[in-house]
Amino acid sequence: MKVYINGEFFEEDEAKISVLDHGLLYGDGIFEGIRLYKKCVFKLNEHLERLEHSAKAIMLELPWSREAIAEAVCETCRVNEVEDVYLRLLVTRGKGTLGFSPKSCSNPQLIILSDPGPFYSAEYYEEGIKLITVPTRRLSTAALSPQIKSLNYLNSILGKIECQHLGYSEALMLNEDGFVAECTGDNVFIIQKGQLLTPPSSAGILMGITRQTIIDIAERLGIPIKETPLSRYALWNADECFLTGTYAEIIPVKEMDGRTIGKACPGPLTKQFTEEFFKLNSKDGVKI
Ligand code: PMP
Question: Which domain holds residue 244?
Fold first, then answer.
């Protein structure tokens, strides 16, 4: 894998940033996970818009135009000669002094990594995944907006550690009010009596780009969709449940806190959303 750093490409072992980069010292930076499908960068514009919003939220001035970042993403795909890949785009605050004030940092670093997979086990997609609710709550929106895709993922990492301790590979995380927020790196949907339901932004979630894609598909297909607070009870008793994310794509959920979800996994609407999603993803983006 060749790694892009500020306009140059390096072999993986040669790709380096300063130990004084506040991205390393404090998780001070932002990122996007992006997917290339059949030489098409899926929803690139949406990812770059979210990156700009994250940057604005942490008052990190991006010294590159959206077009320049888009070109860097496409160039990374071309240089690595890939047709399908997961890309990780990071912007760190840059090198500074040991104090955490970003005032000492003047040179943000734009880094793009790529991972050709394989990603999650095929079993998750064919048979579904089991989820368990973990004690760690999603960060309160008042403390740190979950919409900022920051380089500090400790909240999710704690959720992951807790579910793994219990023998599960994915965790359901609740918000401080006890409503369903999201998984450690994926959004959650359920289907109840033909209606698609998902927690709203006020539940303290990342507004996933895959999540929005599913909402758009539902609207196009005339499937009623509602963004509404969800309890664990609603998930236990759902007809279907699935997770969405750039890395995960669409993963059906077969069990939640020991309760089997629905009659079959993946359920019929989950299958339909998955088919529609894969029809879109080599079209709805930027060709490299
Ligand atoms: N929630 C969290 C916490 C995430 O980190 C992610 C991305 N991995 C998502 C949801 C899904 O967002 P997207 O569909 O934009 O990848």
Answer: 122-283
Pair 202, 212: CB distance under 8 Å: no
86, 16 Cβ separation under 8 angstroms: no
Provide, for the chain, the percentages of residues in helix, strand and coil under a 3-state DSSP scheme, each rounded to the nearest 5.
30, 30, 40
What is the residue type of 100? F
Ligand 1 atom index nearest CA of 206 = 1
Q: Are residues 153 and 64 in the same domain?
A: no
Query: CB pairs under 8 A, 24+ apart, for 10-15?
Result: 15/111
Domain boundary among 100, 115, 130: 115
Give pLDDT, residue 282: 84
Pocket-testing residue among 188, 243, 246, ligand 1, by greatest number of atoms within 8 A of Cβ: 246
Computed over every residue of the chain, the mean pLDDT equals 97
In a domain, 147, yes or no: yes
Q: What is the CATH number of the domain that holds 243?
A: 3.20.10.10
* Structure-block tokens of residue 120: 């999650």
Distance in angstroms between the alpha carbons of the first and the last residue of the chain: 17
Report the share of the chain in percent with pLDDT over 70: 100
Last residue of a domain, one of 93, 115, 137: 115
